[in-house]
C-alpha cells in the first residue's frame, strides 16, 4: 500500500538566520526610512505584491513575510509599485537573497476584467477601491522590473496567478493556450500552492549560498531544465504525450487512470506487479524518481484534445501522497528545454498551522495607507480588508473538487486545520486589539464553512486515492464527516467575554452539513444572521455532472432541515442560493428549467455570475476542448464525452437572462428563445408563466403598460428573504456572492 511521504522538516525546526536578533517588526517595512528605524542596512528578501499591504493572515504577502521573518530573515514589502519603470522596485535596495513576486490574492486578469472581458472600474485590494493599480499579467511585469532593477538577484514567483499558470494553460482573455508563466516570466523558480514549506527551504538554502539553479528537489516548485541536463539522469519517465498511449503503468499509478465514482482505494487495491506480454513480472520504480511526460507545449497549443488530456493527467497527479513529477517540453527557436513540476507540497500539520497564524500580525493595513487622523476610512479604506476585518480563518483546502473552482487546485484537497486553542487566541486578540470591534465575529471559516477537521479515515487510503472529489457523486464511505470539533469550537468561541455574536460567512457545504443534524441545529440557532448562503449552482443534472456538484435534492433536504431548525429557534431566516450561468455542459433548456425553478420558488437574482474560465480548471479544459476530462479523453468519437460549450455573446447573454427572468430588459430575448425552443407556453401573464407577453414602454414602466393592457399584472414585489444576494460589484469571491474561480475571497483569500 502506498504511504504518505516521509514527514518533511517542520517549519519550526530550522536554525534561525542570524538577523533573528532584530526581532519582529511592527509592520514589514515599505520604505528605507522604516528599515533605518528597525536598524536594518538591507533586506534579505523583498516581496513584491499587486495588493495593498495588509498585515493580516488572510493576505498572502503578510503570511509569507511573517513566516520568513520568524525564520530570522529581514523581509521588506513593495506593494502595488508603479510598474512603468524599475525605480519603484529599487525602493528598498538590493535584496540579499531573492525577490518574491506575486500578483496578489487574485489572478490579475480576473481582478481587472469581468467574465464578459470588460475592464473593472474598481479593485477591492486597493485603498479606496481604486482600479488600475496593477498591470495585466502582473507577475510577468513585476518579474521583468525586478530583473531590470537588479539583474543578478534570483526571482521566485508565487501566489494564485503563478500557481494556476504553472503549466501550459488556456487563457480566456486571449482565447489561446499560453506557455507556463515560468517560461514567459523567465523567473528562476515558481512556487505553487500553499508556499510556506517551499519558501522557507528556498530562503535557508540560498542563505547557505546554494545557487538557485541547484534548487530542483523542493516539493511545490517548478523550474526549467535543459534537456541534456545530467542532473535529470536516474529518472524513470512515463510517456503520456499521446491521448491513447498513457505509457507503461500499473493499476494504481496510471497517469491516465479512469476516475471511478466509487469508494477510494482500500487494502485490496494495493499496487501489484503486472505482466506484460508474458515476459515476467515487473515492479514500477519509486514515485520519487518517476516523472510523467506531458504533451509538449507546441502540441497542446494547437490540439484541444491533447490539451484536455494533459489537463486530466495533471489533475490526477495532485495528491501529495502519490503524485509524481510532471515534465513538459518547450521549443525556444529550435532549442528545447523542459519545464519540471515537482509533486505538491506536504500539507501543514496542525502545530505548523498554529505557528503560521500565531505570528505577530498587526491585523491592519500598513500605516502609509492611513489618512491624517490615522484612520483607514473613506478614500483610504481597503474594501477587501473591511470584508475580513473581524473574521477568522480556521482551515485550508477543499475536497469538493468543483471543476470551475480553483481552491482545490491551489490549496489542495487535504484539509489543514488549526487547533481550537489557536482559533480562540485569535478571536481574543481581535477583540482586544482591533479597532472598531463591536463583539461581532463576521466569520469562522475558510474555503468552506464546515470542512474543519474533516478528512479520510485512513492515512494509507488517503495517500493512495486518486479521486478528484471526496463528495461527488456521493460522499465517500471512507470520509469522516463528523462536525463535532466544529460544534465544540462554535460553543467555546461564542462563550468568550466580549463576544456577542459569531456569524458564519463562508460558503456552507450543505451536502456535508446534512450528515450532522446537530451541526445544522447549532448553526441555524446561533450563527445565522438572517440569511445563509449556499451554492447549489444549478438544478439540472447535465451541468451539475460537469461541475461535480450534488443534485438539487440535497439542497431540498438541507432546506427542510434549515427551516425546521429556524422555526424551532423562533427565528425567520432565509437561504440565499447561488447559481452559475453558461457553465460547460449547460443547454438552453437547462437554463430554462432553472429559471422556472427560481420563479416557482420565488427567487429573484439581483446579479448573477457567468462562468469564468480560470486558468488550469477542469471546467476551463471543457470550455476550450469541448471534451469532458472526467470521463477520459479519446480521439475515438464513440468514447469519452463531448460537452456543450456556451460560447458567443448572445448565448451567454441568454443564459444570464434566464437567471434574471424578472428583468423586463431580458423579456424580448427570453420570448424569442422560448418560441424557438417550442416553449411559448411559458409566455403569458399568469402566475405559471415565466415572462409576460407585454413589454413595458420604458424600464420599470409597468403602470404605462398596465394602462395599455389592463390584463397585464403589475409584477409582485419579492417576498422578504426571497431576493438573492445584493452584490456590491466586487470581483468574484470577494463578497462570497459571485461564483467563479477562487480568486481571493477576503477572510479566505487565495493563498500564497
UniProtKB/TrEMBL annotation:
<dbReference type="InterPro" id="IPR013704">
    <property type="entry name" value="UPF0313_N"/>
</dbReference>
<dbReference type="InterPro" id="IPR020612">
    <property type="entry name" value="Methylthiotransferase_CS"/>
</dbReference>
<dbReference type="InterPro" id="IPR007197">
    <property type="entry name" value="rSAM"/>
</dbReference>
<dbReference type="Pfam" id="PF04055">
    <property type="entry name" value="Radical_SAM"/>
</dbReference>
<keyword id="KW-0004">4Fe-4S</keyword>
<comment type="similarity">
    <text>Belongs to the UPF0313 family.</text>
</comment>
<dbReference type="InterPro" id="IPR024560">
    <property type="entry name" value="UPF0313_C"/>
</dbReference>
<protein>
    <submittedName>
        <fullName>YgiQ family radical SAM protein</fullName>
    </submittedName>
</protein>
<dbReference type="InterPro" id="IPR023404">
    <property type="entry name" value="rSAM_horseshoe"/>
</dbReference>
<keyword id="KW-0949">S-adenosyl-L-methionine</keyword>
<feature type="domain" description="Radical SAM core">
    <location>
        <begin position="384"/>
        <end position="656"/>
    </location>
</feature>
<feature type="binding site">
    <location>
        <position position="398"/>
    </location>
    <ligand>
        <name>[4Fe-4S] cluster</name>
    </ligand>
</feature>
<feature type="region of interest" description="Disordered">
    <location>
        <begin position="698"/>
        <end position="752"/>
    </location>
</feature>
<keyword id="KW-0479">Metal-binding</keyword>
<dbReference type="InterPro" id="IPR058240">
    <property type="entry name" value="rSAM_sf"/>
</dbReference>
<keyword id="KW-0411">Iron-sulfur</keyword>
<keyword id="KW-0408">Iron</keyword>
<feature type="binding site">
    <location>
        <position position="402"/>
    </location>
    <ligand>
        <name>[4Fe-4S] cluster</name>
    </ligand>
</feature>
<dbReference type="InterPro" id="IPR006638">
    <property type="entry name" value="Elp3/MiaA/NifB-like_rSAM"/>
</dbReference>
<dbReference type="InterPro" id="IPR022946">
    <property type="entry name" value="UPF0313"/>
</dbReference>
<dbReference type="Pfam" id="PF11842">
    <property type="entry name" value="DUF3362"/>
</dbReference>
<feature type="binding site">
    <location>
        <position position="405"/>
    </location>
    <ligand>
        <name>[4Fe-4S] cluster</name>
    </ligand>
</feature>
<dbReference type="Pfam" id="PF08497">
    <property type="entry name" value="Radical_SAM_N"/>
</dbReference>
<feature type="compositionally biased region" description="Low complexity">
    <location>
        <begin position="731"/>
        <end position="752"/>
    </location>
</feature>
Amino acid at each position: 500500500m502506498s504511504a504518505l511521504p516521509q514527514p518533511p522538516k517542520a517549519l519550526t525546526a530550522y536554525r534561525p538566520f542570524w538577523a533573528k536578533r532584530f526581532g519582529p517588526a511592527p509592520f514589514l517595512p515599505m520604505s528605507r526610512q522604516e528599515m533605518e528605524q528597525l536598524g536594518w542596512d538591507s533586506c534579505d528578501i523583498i516581496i513584491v505584491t499587486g495588493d495593498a499591504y495588509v498585515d493580516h493572515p488572510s493576505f498572502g504577502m503578510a503570511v509569507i513575510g511573517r513566516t520568513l521573518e520568524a525564520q530570522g530573515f529581514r523581509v521588506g514589502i513593495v506593494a502595488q509599485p508603479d510598474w512603468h519603470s524599475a525605480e519603484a522596485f529599487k525602493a528598498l535596495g538590493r535584496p540579499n537573497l531573492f525577490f518574491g513576486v506575486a500578483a496578489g490574492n487574485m489572478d490579475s486578469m480576473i481582478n481587472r476584467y469581468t467574465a464578459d472581458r470588460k475592464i473593472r472600474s474598481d479593485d477591492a485590494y486597493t485603498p479606496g477601491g481604486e482600479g488600475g493599480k496593477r498591470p495585466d499579467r502582473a507577475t510577468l511585469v513585476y518579474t521583468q522590473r525586478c530583473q531590470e532593477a537588479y539583474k543578478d538577484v534570483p526571482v521566485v514567483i508565487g501566489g494564485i496567478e503563478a500557481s494556476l499558470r504553472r503549466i501550459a494553460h488556456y487563457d480566456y482573455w486571449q482565447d489561446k493556450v499560453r506557455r507556463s508563466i515560468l517560461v514567459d516570466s523567465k523567473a528562476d523558480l515558481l512556487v505553487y500552492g500553499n508556499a510556506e514549506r517551499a519558501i522557507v527551504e528556498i530562503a535557508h538554502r540560498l542563505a547557505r549560498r546554494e545557487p538557485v539553479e541547484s534548487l530542483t528537489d523542493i516539493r511545490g516548485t517548478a523550474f526549467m531544465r535543459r534537456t541534456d541536463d545530467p542532473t535529470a539522469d536516474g529518472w524513470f519517465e512515463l510517456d503520456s504525450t499521446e491521448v491513447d498511449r498513457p505509457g507503461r503503468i500499473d493499476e494504481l499509478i496510471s497517469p491516465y487512470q479512469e476516475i471511478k465514482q466509487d469508494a477510494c482505494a482500500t487494502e485490496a487495491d494495493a499496487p501489484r506487479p503486472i505482466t506484460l506480454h508474458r515476459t515476467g513480472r515487473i515492479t514500477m520504480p519509486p514515485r520519487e524518481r518517476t516523472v510523467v511526460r506531458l504533451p509538449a507545449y507546441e502540441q497542446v497549443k494547437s490540439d484541444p484534445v491533447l490539451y484536455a488530456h494533459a489537463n486530466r493527467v495533471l489533475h490526477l497527479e495532485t495528491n501529495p501522497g502519490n503524485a509524481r513529477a510532471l515534465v513538459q517540453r518547450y521549443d525556444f527557436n529550435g532549442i528545447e528545454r523542459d519545464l519540471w513540476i515537482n509533486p505538491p507540497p506536504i500539507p501543514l500539520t496542525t502545530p505548523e498551522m498554529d505557528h503560521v497564524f500565531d505570528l505577530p500580525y498587526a491585523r491592519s493595513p500598513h500605516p502609509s495607507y492611513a489618512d491624517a487622523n490615522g484612520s483607514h476610512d473613506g478614500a483610504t479604506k481597503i474594501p477587501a480588508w473591511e470584508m475580513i476585518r473581524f473574521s477568522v480563518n480556521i482551515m485550508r483546502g477543499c475536497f469538493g473538487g468543483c471543476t470551475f473552482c480553483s481552491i482545490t487546485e491551489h490549496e489542495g484537497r487535504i484539509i489543514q486545520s488549526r487547533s481550537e486553542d489557536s482559533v480562540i487566541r485569535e478571536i481574543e486578540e481581535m477583540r482586544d486589539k482591533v479597532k472598531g470591534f463591536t463583539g461581532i465575529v463576521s466569520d469562522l471559516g475558510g474555503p468552506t464553512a464546515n470542512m474543519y477537521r474533516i478528512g479520510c479515515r485512513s492515512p494509507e487510503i488517503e495517500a493512495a486515492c486518486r479521486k478528484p472529489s471526496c463528495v461527488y457523486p456521493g460522499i465517500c464511505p471512507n470520509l469522516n464527516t463528523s462536525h463535532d470539533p466544529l460544534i465544540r469550537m462554535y460553543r467555546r468561541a461564542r462563550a468568550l467575554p466580549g463576544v456577542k455574536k459569531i456569524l458564519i460567512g463562508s460558503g456552507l457545504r450543505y451536502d456535508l452539513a446534512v450528515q450532522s443534524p446537530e451541526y445544522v441545529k447549532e448553526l441555524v440557532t446561533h450563527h445565522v444572521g438572517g440569511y445563509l448562503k449556499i451554492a447549489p449552482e444549478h438544478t439540472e443534472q447535465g451541468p451539475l455532472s460537469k461541475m461535480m456538484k450534488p443534485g438539487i435534492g440535497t439542497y431540498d433536504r438541507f432546506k427542510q432541515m434549515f427551516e425546521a431548525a429556524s422555526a424551532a429557534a423562533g427565528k425567520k431566516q432565509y437561504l440565499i442560493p447561488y447559481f452559475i450561468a453558461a457553465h460547460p455542459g449547460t443547454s438552453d433548456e437547462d437554463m430554462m428549467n432553472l429559471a422556472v425553478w427560481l420563479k416557482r420558488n420565488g427567487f429573484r437574482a439581483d446579479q448573477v455570475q457567468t462562468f469564468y474560465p480560470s486558468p488550469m480548471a477542469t471546467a476551463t479544459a471543457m470550455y476550450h476542448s469541448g471534451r469532458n476530462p472526467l470521463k477520459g479523453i479519446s480521439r475515438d468519437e464513440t468514447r469519452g464525452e463531448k460537452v456543450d460549450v456556451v460560447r458567443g455573446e448572445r448565448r451567454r447573454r441568454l443564459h444570464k437572462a434566464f437567471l434574471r427572468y424578472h428583468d423586463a430588459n431580458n423579456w424580448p430575448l427570453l420570448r424569442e428563445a422560448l418560441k424557438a425552443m417550442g416553449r411559448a407556453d411559458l409566455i403569458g401573464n399568469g402566475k405559471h408563466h415565466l415572462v409576460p407577453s407585454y413589454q413595458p414602454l420604458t424600464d420599470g414602466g409597468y403602470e404605462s403598460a398596465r394602462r395599455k393592457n389592463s390584463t397585464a399584472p403589475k409584477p409582485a414585489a419579492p417576498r422578504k428573504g426571497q431576493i438573492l444576494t445584493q452584490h456590491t460589484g466586487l470581483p468574484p469571491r470577494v463578497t462570497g456572492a459571485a461564483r467563479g474561480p477562487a480568486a481571493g475571497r477576503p477572510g479566505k483569500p487565495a493563498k500564497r
